[in-house]
Write a structure and sequence with these properties.
448 residues; mainly alpha; two-stranded antiparallel ribbon; 18 helices; 6 strands; 4% strand; globular
């Protein structure tokens, strides 16, 4: 009976802005009542989860107190008797709660010139990158020794990735306001690195429009527990054991992610609308032409030379793409929410993305690490992303997660990648706000 009365008073004091812990201590000292064990929801702990909303039985006097419940899957309640525990939120901040600002607030904070697209400036980056690509190939072919080749493979793989980012800007329309220019440049850049421009552009649009949504997101979205458990052991190991996930992009282009059907090359895929089929066919033809060119060069130069000049750098590009795109949505020290149903919104989904610092690579790959602003406003050209992010930070507040500063080369990201692969395996089938869970069996198997 005393516990019920205490609970009612604590709830009342909590509505006045007094924390549960302070209220319990106050009542203990003033009323002689033993404080209740205090429960905390910790979304950063790596334990199993329970489903919300959680109901608490109390006397009927609480029935007129309204409160909003969120159907969510979060880690189980951690109970401690008469002592303070870490609640997992910095200063009471809940990353899964709706933000106190709107998309319009962020937009208003960004300087107007950041929205201006300069096609000449965009083309200058294309020229720069193409010159570097051919220059690197010429130097490697000239020296042709095993001291130069590894350096070339890393550098050229990075430059292929830079070409992809510029084609990516064409797909978003941030390259220029001229749709034909965007399409021509995008096809030339992406076809040269074996990416079907329109097929990828359309699926990437789906990714941006549904970022942070468990089922509807397209790129590196979490597996539901049901889908995860339906995978055979070999598939699970390949998906979460390095380096295999970093070679996933070509497979994704052909067959998408587990639980989704279709191909980026097939105009009849579920990815595409009826009026987009012609675009997909054009991009597939361009991709096929690049394959034919590589085959032809193999007869002229020899397959080994083509492998050294193009094949190995292509694998480097794939690893860059998978590393960057994965870490923009995973690997933070705190658990990040994923959404379903009414809890998802474009803004809340976009706020789960992460900025990353790549050291010297930032300029080379066109500041793609400034990812939060890019995800919310993909129309902003890459050369304005850093300034736009700086202007928007005061609006974001704690919803912006400052990236760790990198050394000249971002080796620190490899540790974040490995850690995330060991713990971020699936999310609950239930709940509208969910967090990644860990399969301990998979982690144990990977150590053997």
């Amino acid at each position: 009976m005393h516990h019920n009365i205490l609970l009612i008073i604590i709830q009342f004091l909590h509505h006045l802005g007094i924390s549960n812990l302070m209220a319990s201590i106050f009542l203990s000292s003033k009323c002689g009542l033993k404080p209740l064990a205090i429960s905390y929801i910790n979304p950063t702990t790596r334990v199993s989860v329970s489903t919300f909303p959680v109901s608490v039985k109390s006397s009927s006097s609480l029935s007129n107190l309204s409160r909003r419940t969120i159907k969510a899957s979060a880690p189980v309640l951690v109970e401690e008797d008469e002592k303070r525990v870490d609640d997992g939120f910095e200063s009471g901040f809940n990353p899964g709660a709706p933000p106190p600002f709107t998309l319009a607030d962020i937009r208003a904070a960004i300087p107007k010139h950041c929205w201006v697209k300069d096609p000449w400036r965009s083309m200058s980056y294309v020229l720069r990158d193409v010159v570097v690509v051919f220059g690197l190939a010429a130097v490697a072919a000239y020296f042709n020794n095993m001291v130069v080749w590894p350096l070339y493979w890393f550098a050229q793989g990075t430059m292929f990735w830079a070409l992809f980012v510029l084609g990516h800007d064409c797909g978003h329309g941030s390259f220029s306001n001229n749709a034909k220019l965007n399409s021509v440049v995008g096809h030339l850049l992406h076809s040269s690195i074996l990416v079907p421009y329109h097929g990828w552009r359309i699926s990437h649009r789906t990714h941006h429009q549904n970022h942070g949504h468990v089922e509807n997101d397209e790129s590196w979205h979490p597996l539901s527990e049901k889908i995860y458990k339906s995978l055979d052991t070999a598939t699970r190991m390949l998906r979460f054991t390095l380096p295999f996930p970093m070679l996933a992009f070509p497979l994704y282009l052909w067959g998408r992610s587990p639980g989704k059907k279709g191909s980026h090359f097939h105009p009849g895929s579920d990815l595409f609308r009826a009026n987009e089929k012609t675009d997909v066919i054009i991009s597939t033809v361009c991709w096929s032409a690049m394959v034919a060119l590589l085959v032809g060069l193999s007869f002229v130069m020899g397959p080994l030379q083509v492998l050294k000049l193009y094949g190995i750098p292509y694998l480097g590009f794939v690893m860059w793409l998978d590393l960057v795109t994965y870490l923009h949505h995973h690997g933070h020290e705190d658990k990040l929410p994923w959404y379903r149903g009414k809890e998802w919104s474009y803004l809340r989904g976009g706020l789960t993305t992460l900025d990353r610092d790549y050291g010297w690579i930032n300029n080379i790959h066109h500041d793609i690490g400034t990812h939060v602003i890019h995800h919310l406003f993909p129309q902003i050209p890459h050369y304005h992303l850093v300034e736009a992010t700086k202007a928007a930070k005061p609006v974001f507040g704690k919803y912006y997660r400052e990236p760790k500063k990198s050394q000249p080369l971002p080796f620190h990201l490899l540790g974040l990648l490995a850690s995330s692969m060991k713990r971020d395996h699936y999310v609950s089938d239930e709940g509208d706000v969910v967090y990644y869970q860990t399969d301990p069996k998979l982690t144990d198997d990977s150590r053997q």
